[in-house]
Design brief:
266 residues, 2 domains, three-stranded mixed beta sheet, alpha/beta, Lyase 2-enoyl-coa Hydratase, Chain  A, domain 2, six-stranded mixed beta sheet, 12 helices, 2-enoyl-CoA Hydratase, Chain A, domain 1, 9 strands, 15% strand
Amino acid sequence: MTPTVRSADDGAVRILTIDNPSKRNAFSGAMAATLLSELDRADADPSVRAVVVTGAGGCFSSGHDLQEVLEHPDTAGDPVANAAFSRPAEILTPVIGAVDGPAYAAGFILALNCDLRVAAPGARFCAVGAAIGLVPVGGQLSRLLDLVGYPVAYRWLATAAAFDAAEAERHGFVTEVHDDALGRAVEIARTIASVSPSVVAAVKAGLNHSLRHGPDAGRAAEPRLAALVRELPDGDEGVRAFLERRPPRYPDRPSDLNRRVGEALK
């Protein structure tokens, strides 16, 4: 079977499956480019309200195919070749990682850049950079610090030692540990998909803006994001649904919302 990233829809939830189980879902050939394309395609589709990324065969991903790295050593540190692994943090569509088994190297970076992570009890994580002579990239020196704080981030990165799902949950890296990581991740994604997708996009954009530029910048952005969403029908629908005691029926987010959010945060 050709290594690939498979895409399937569960209603408004797009499920992307890393599929190369014979190599512990290592990214071989064009898999990273396919993942990048699939994430961008999901973000460009207003009907997709949440994305779940998982791996086939009880493994998330062991990272790059090391044979290919030996043949093309520049790939490991090439920002273009690695763009897929940090893309979940850059798009407005929420992305949840469902982690079964190992999430190592680039697989760890991919999990790190998801908005939420659900792990099976047997999941293991490892930032391998220090062990193989490569500086940790892809958010490991920035995003990880925001998630778990300096002492934990330093230990994980400086030792390059693997850690289990329980430790990941204890430090807040993993949202929760569940026997059925994919099923639970899809359940969370469905819940997110049931609320206003435009507000969800504004929430992600606002939080990331605050992380990058500080809380003062985040507070300044709040009224601009609120004004942008007030122009949409979501607020009226939410209030009407509450008064009529029915579930809200929120429209898909506007196709140009990414551009409008970007302009509001300038």
